Amino acid sequence: MKPRSYVLFIGSSGPSNIAYHRFLKQRGYVLAAAQGYRNLYQANMHDGCEIAVLHQTLSEKELMEASHFVRKRWPLARILIIRAEEWRIEDALYDDRVVPGADPETLLAAVERLAG
Question: Cβ-count burial of 52 within 10 angstroms (0-12 exposed, 13-18 middle, 19+ buried)?
Fold first, then answer.
């Protein structure tokens, strides 16, 4: 049986984000959190980051900075963004997207797709 993935949440936590965290932890995912993209330098991910989840609380600039950071530090990590609108950039700095307020099962399905 494959061990569960390491998931890093980036951005401020709100009630739905706390529900996401709890839901994924109950399913065996190993979680860490960084309140903002500047906190990524202190992120406690000794075993690596397989999936980075970027919250809708990040501005577009912060989203880009966080994506670049994740791609550079953990090149094999997949990036899931929680954002209402599609985000189109030429470098494809994210792999999947869910809308804010999506139920935890939708987030889990996206995480599992990315964990492959």
Answer: buried
**From CA 100, how far away is CA 50, in angstroms rounded?**
21
The secondary structure of residue 40, as a DSSP letter, is G
List pLDDT tens digits, range 69-86. 999 989 999 999 998 876
Report residue 22 as tokens: 């709890």
Cα–chain-centroid distance for residue 18? 13
How far is residue 68's CA from residue 19's CA, in Å, rounded to a whole number? 27
Q: Model's pTM, two decimal places? A: 0.88
CA distance 79 to 11: 13
pLDDT digits (tens, 9 = 90+) for 18-44: 888 888 999 999 888 888 877 877 766
**Beta carbons within 8 Å of 35's beta carbon, 6+ residues apart:** 11, 12, 13
- Please give the structure tokens belonging to residue 28: 């065996």
Amino acid (1-letter code) at residue 84: A
What's the rounded Cα separation, in Å, for the pair 94 and 102? 18
Angle between helices 15-26 and 104-115 (to 10 degrees): 50
